[in-house]
Amino acid sequence: MKCRAEQAGRPFREARFYKRIQGVFMKNKKSGCPEQTALASKKNFWQILGKQKQLLLMSVPFVIYIIIFKFVPLWGWTMAFQDYKPARSFSQQTWVGLRWFFFLFKDKEFLLSLRNTVCMSLISTALGYVTAVLIAVLLNEIRHIGIKRFIQTVSYLPHFLSWVIVTGLVANVLSVEDGILNNVLMSLGVIKEPLLWLSVPKYFWHIIGWTYVWKEVGWNTIVYLGAMTAIDPCLYEAAEIDGCGRLRKIAHITLPGIRPTIIIMMIMSAGHILDANFEMPFFLKNGMIEDVASTIDLYVLKYGFKLFNFSLATAAGIFKNAVNILLLLLANWFAKKAGEERLI
């Protein structure tokens, strides 16, 4: 009986064996040699492009825009290595090497502008991240759809105001004569006389930071709310069965769920550390707060369009962009070493 069973099962085992061998053979046949694989991949590439003609045509205007307004102007960076004179042709310019870059690091005004730019940017970035994540978490916990949409709409609206309008509102709110902030504080007995908010250096950076929060916090929450929708609802249900409250759900499910998004946004923000807001310091600064209100952008504006030292202004702009790119790459490298999400 045992031999008969073995003889009966042998055809099935042989069939499975030959089927496995045939699958390996077909796989090797499909893979082929490297040259054939490369040709096949090229054909597939051109076939995919042929199927996406409409998308390619739609992207042409944007590619042309980037080339004309982003890459062609890079030719102007040569002014940073010249003693540029507008009346001379390119061949007549005097090349000075890195003289203007050495001048930057010896100029106290530039170093002061660099300090102010970094401090204002760090304050705005830190406040922006904390408040955006906090409001996104709170909105995610609201169960009443009407209230949730109302809060989202109200918080989004300031984003669509220009910085010129926002600075006008800030100046009116902090005005000494009829500013609402001074009036409220005086009515509550906190202060006895109006404060010159925009003339005291220690207040200026905080005004910049909290104004940025008021304008952009609602818009910044969109990214985190979108990341929260990708969290599996079963995790919340399991946590509720285990007796977890809202705070423990936030700490152990929501925040870890949006952690990759937070890391990516931080990496992207690292590339804008020297891109402090231009409009607010420009419109709100005065002689009493000049030392804390000047930024790299205002430094470039002063030397490029007021003193007509185009070479020095270009060198300052190149320095700012180079540092931003370096910080972006470093932040991405640290995220990679830490095993977190990264851009590259």
Q: In words, what does this structure look like?
A:
The chain folds into three domains: 1-31; 32-97, no CATH class; 103-337, Orthogonal Bundle (MetI-like fold). The chain is built from 16 helices and two strands. The protein has helices at residues 2-31, 34-51, 53-71, 99-106, 108-141, 145-156, 163-173, 180-187, 201-228, 233-241, 246-257, 259-270, 279-284, 290-293, 296-306, 310-337, and strands spanning 82-83, 94-95. A two-stranded antiparallel sheet has the order 1-2. The radius of gyration is 30 Å and the shape is globular. Mean pLDDT is 85; it is low at 1-15 and 27-32.
Can you name the CATH architecture of the largest domain? Answer: Orthogonal Bundle
Number of DSSP strand runs:
2
**Gyration radius, in Å:** 30 Å
Contiguous uncertain segments of 5+ residues: 1-15, 27-32
CATH-derived topology of the largest domain: MetI-like fold
Q: Tell me about the biggest sheet?
A: 2 strands, antiparallel
Structural class: mainly alpha
Number of domains: 3
CATH superfamily of the largest domain: MetI-like
Give the SSE layout.
Elements (H helix, E strand, L loop, with lengths): L1 H30 L2 H18 L1 H19 L10 E2 L10 E2 L3 H8 L1 H34 L3 H12 L6 H11 L6 H8 L13 H28 L4 H9 L4 H12 L1 H12 L8 H6 L5 H4 L2 H11 L3 H28 L7
Antiparallel strand pairs: 1-2
Give a quick summary of the entry.
The protein is mostly helical. The chain has helices at 2-31, 34-51, 53-71, 99-106, 108-141, 145-156, 163-173, 180-187, 201-228, 233-241, 246-257, 259-270, 279-284, 290-293, 296-306, 310-337; strands at residues 82-83, 94-95. It has three domains: 1-31; 32-97, no CATH class; 103-337, MetI-like (MetI-like fold), CATH 1.10.3720.10.
